[in-house]
Amino acid sequence: MNRILTCLLLISALFLSVSCTSKKAQQGSNSKNIIKVMTYNVHHCNPPDKKGIIDVDGTAAVIKNQNADLVALQEIDVNTGRSGKINQAALLAQKAGYPFYYFAKAMDYDGGRYGLAILSKYPLANAISHLLPSDNSKRDEPRVLAEATVKWPGGKDFHFCSTHLEAFNKKSRTLQMQEINQIAGKSSIPFIVAGDFNAFEGSEVINILDQQFNRTCDKCPNTFDEEGERGAIDFIAFRKNDPFVTKSHQVIPEKTASDHMPVVATIEIR
Q1: Which of 50, 205, 232, 251 could form a disulfide with 199 if both were Cys (CB 3.0 to 4.6 A apart)?
Q2: Which residues contact 83 (CB under 8 A, 6 or more apart)?
Q3: Cβ atoms within 10 A of the Cβ of 228, count?
Q4: Does one domain contain both 13 and 133?
Q5: Contacts of 238 (CB under 8 A, 6+ apart)
Q6: Same domain (yes/no): 2, 114
Q7: Is the domain of 1 the same as that of 59?
């Protein structure tokens, strides 16, 4: 009798163990179908009310608190004099807990480089910087699109991009958005772009974006508020007909680390 009871208990324990393991595996699989994306113009880690101060730790804390899978960063300094000759892309990746990153130079600045970065919790491949066009105005800063292939679990790879469009020249900004649409149109895998577009909803630039992409928000909350100018100019978007669906969109009310607020969206892979 004791032998029978012992056997029954062992079978029950084995069944429970297999059941729990199966549930955990299922939960892990489900989580791989959700991408959490963040875009953040970090103002070279200079808090807007602290002129000349570089606070990489403060910026990294904002990024880390959101625990996104992928982060598109704008206004990144690498080895510039004004930032103390540090590599902000590498330091932000390290301090915020991202094992993979890519820096794309937009221009040389103050003895170093200035541009965009991508932070990722998953391996990146085929990283490239696309120089975006301008109308050759002397006031224009060089602008780029940083692109990398994200090696997502389950072989569901996609392109992830960070960008920062021209701030003062509408014609250049329009040309740049058109170029991004063309780049996205040539991609053979799904395509996500995030960044500071320096344009409000309803503008020609965002209307062009909307031709090729679905934004993760409609009537988006403000992301920028400086010197009386406020509105949404930072966006996350994925290409139309790609297997993505927006699950949530949020602007994080953090105004001390930068003059922009971080934008976070969760996107489901279908």
Answers
A1: 205
A2: 44, 45, 54, 77, 112
A3: 5
A4: no
A5: 190, 191, 192, 193, 213, 214, 216, 244, 267
A6: no
A7: no
Say whether both 115 and 192 belong to one domain: yes
Q: Are residues 209 and 235 in the same domain?
A: yes
Strand blocks (E) in the chain: 34-41, 70-78, 100-109, 112-120, 124-131, 144-150, 158-164, 191-196, 213-215, 224-226, 229-231, 234-239, 244-251, 263-269
CB atoms within 10 A of CB 27: 9
The amino acid that residue 48 corresponds to is P
> Is residue 14 domain-shared with residue 52, that is, in the same domain?
no
Domain extent for 207: 34-269
Q: What is the pLDDT along the chain (270 residues), one digit of tens a residue?
A: 444 444 433 334 333 333 333 333 333 334 689 999 999 999 999 999 999 999 999 999 999 999 999 999 999 999 999 999 999 999 999 999 999 999 999 999 999 999 999 999 999 999 999 999 999 877 899 999 999 999 999 999 999 999 999 999 999 999 999 999 999 999 999 999 999 999 999 999 999 999 999 999 999 999 998 776 789 999 999 999 999 999 999 999 999 999 999 999 999 999
Q: What is the DSSP letter of 167?
A: S
Same domain, residue pair 113 and 139 = yes
| Shared-domain flag, residues 22 and 140 | no
Instruction: Give the global pTM.
Output: 0.88
| Count of the separate structural domains present in the chain | 2
Structure tokens at 98: 């991202």
pLDDT of residue 31: 60
Q: Which CATH number does the domain housing residue 245 bear? A: 3.60.10.10
